[in-house]
Design brief:
Blueprint (H helix, E strand, L loop, with lengths): L10 E13 L11 E13 L3 E5 L6 H8 L7 E6 L2 E2 L5 H4 L6 E4 L13 H12 L5 H14 L16 H13 L5 E5 L7 H18 L2 E5 L3 H7 L2 E6 L2 E7 H6 L4 H8 L48 E2 L5 E2 L9
Parallel strand pairs: 3-8, 3-9, 6-7, 7-8
Antiparallel strand pairs: 1-2, 1-4, 4-5, 9-10, 10-12, 11-12
The structure holds adenosine-5'-triphosphate and magnesium ion.
Length: 331
C-alpha cells in the first residue's frame, strides 16, 4: 500500500479561493437570476506523489471541483496553479498541452468508454491526440503495456467494453487515463459503481500505480473507509467549502471540526476524537446557502456568532486546517 507520508515536495496543484457557480434559469421576466454555489472558495495544495482524499455528503461540490481541476468545467473565480502555471481562464487551446499532465478517472466505467470502440482503440485515443511523437507501433505497444499494468491481458486489446465486467471496464478507464503518463490523476468516485468485492482490487491497483508512477492523486469517495485506506491527506467539504483538511491519521483519529466529528460518528463502530451526535437534517441548498458558517444550521455546537460570521480556514494542532469558530483544541 502507498500510504506512507511522502517526503515534502513542491506542490503540483495550488488552488486558491476557487469558485464554480452555475447560473439558474431566470424566474419570470424581471426576476433575479440566482446561482448554484457548487464550489465556493476552495483552497488546497496537492504535493508531488501525494494522494489527497476528498469526502463530503452528496451535492457538496466534489465532482464540480474535480471537473474544474481537470479543465472540464470553467471556474467562476479564483486560481488553480499547476506547477506554477495558472489554469483558470485558459481556453481549449491553452489546455491542450496540459491534458497530458492532468487526467481524470470517472465514476461510471461503462459510460465513460465508447461502446463502438475496442478497448485498445479507447486507450490509444488520448495517445493519438496528445502524444504525436509516438508512431502507430509505439502506440500499440504502450496500449498493450498499459493493459498488462492494470491487470488485463494484451490479448484482450480487440475486445469491446460490453464484453467486460464493471471492474474490468474501470481498469480500462484507468489504463486510458494513465497511458499518456500524467503527473496528476483525478479520480471522481472511481469505485462507487462497483461491487464491494471489486472495490478493494481497484483501490489497491490505484494505490500501487500512484506509488509506482509517482502520481499526485485526488481521490473522491463517499466511503470514508476507502478514503482512509488510500489517502495521505484528507479534505472534508460541505456546501462548496472546505471544512477541515489534515493528515489522514490525525483527521480520522483527532478530527477537530464539528462536521468531520459528526460525519465520522455516523460510521458504525468508528472510534476517534471526541464524539458528537451523528448528522441529522438536510443540507441547505447551494443556491441559497446560510449566512455565516454554512454548517451552522446542522451544527450541534453552533452559537449565535456562527450564523453571522464566516469562519476562516485556520491552521490547527494536527497539522491541517479547520474552518470553525469553535474548533476543538487538540494537543
Ligand atoms: N451543470 C450544473 N448545473 C447546475 N447545477 C449543477 C450542475 N452540476 C452540479 N450542479 C449542482 O452543484 C452542486 C454540487 O454538485 P456536485 O455534483 O459537484 O456534487 P457532489 O459532491 O459530486 O455530489 P455526489 O456525491 O452526489 O456526486 C449540487 O447542488 C448540484 O446539483
Ligand atoms: Mg459527484
Amino acid at each position: 500500500m502507498a500510504t506512507a507520508t511522502p517526503t515534502v515536495t513542491p506542490s503540483q496543484l495550488v488552488v486558491r479561493h476557487l469558485q464554480v457557480h452555475y447560473p439558474l434559469p431566470r424566474r419570470g421576466l424581471l426576476g433575479r437570476r440566482g446561482v448554484v454555489r457548487a464550489v465556493d472558495g476552495v483552497n488546497l495544495n496537492l504535493a508531488a506523489g501525494e494522494t489527497l482524499g476528498v469526502v463530503g455528503e452528496s451535492g457538496c461540490g466534489k465532482s464540480t471541483l474535480a471537473r474544474a481541476l481537470a479543465g472540464l468545467e470553467s471556474a467562476t473565480a479564483g486560481s488553480i496553479k499547476y506547477q506554477g502555471r495558472e489554469l483558470v481562464g485558459l481556453d481549449e487551446r491553452g489546455w491542450r498541452p496540459l491534458r497530458r499532465q492532468i487526467q481524470m478517472v470517472f465514476q461510471d466505467p461503462l459510460a465513460s468508454l465508447d461502446p463502438r470502440m475496442t478497448i485498445g482503440a479507447s486507450i490509444a485515443e488520448p495517445l493519438e491526440a496528445l502524444c504525436p511523437e509516438l508512431d502507430a507501433g509505439q502506440r500499440r505497444s504502450r496500449v498493450a503495456q498499459m493493459l498488462e499494468r492494470v491487470g488485463l491481458s494484451a490479448a484482450q486489446i480487440n475486445r469491446y467494453p460490453h464484453e467486460f465486467s464493471g471492474g474490468q471496464c474501470q481498469r480500462v478507464g484507468i489504463a486510458r487515463a494513465l497511458a499518456v503518463q500524467p503527473d496528476v490523476l483525478i479520480c471522481d468516485e472511481p469505485v462507487s459503481a462497483l461491487d464491494v468485492s471489486v472495490q478493494a482490487q481497484i483501490v489497491n491497483l490505484l494505490a500501487d500505480l500512484q506509488a509506482e508512477m509517482g502520481l499526485s492523486m485526488i481521490f473522491i469517495a463517499h466511503d470514508l473507509a476507502v478514503v482512509r485506506h488510500i489517502s495521505h491527506r484528507v479534505m472534508v467539504m460541505y456546501l462548496g467549502k472546505v471544512m477541515e483538511q489534515g493528515p489522514r491519521q490525525a483527521l480520522f483519529e483527532q478530527p477537530v471540526h464539528p462536521y468531520t466529528r459528526a460525519l465520522l460518528a455516523s460510521i458504525p463502530g468508528h472510534r476517534g476524537g471526541e464524539s458528537l451526535p451523528p448528522l441529522q437534517g438536510e443540507i441547505p441548498s447551494p443556491s441559497n446557502p446560510p449566512t455565516g458558517c454554512v454548517f451552522a444550521t446542522r451544527c450541534p455546537i453552533a452559537e449565535a456568532q456562527c450564523g453571522r460570521q464566516v469562519p476562516n480556514l485556520n491552521r490547527v494542532g494536527h497539522g491541517g486546517n479547520s474552518a470553525c469558530h469553535f474548533t476543538l483544541q487538540t494537543a
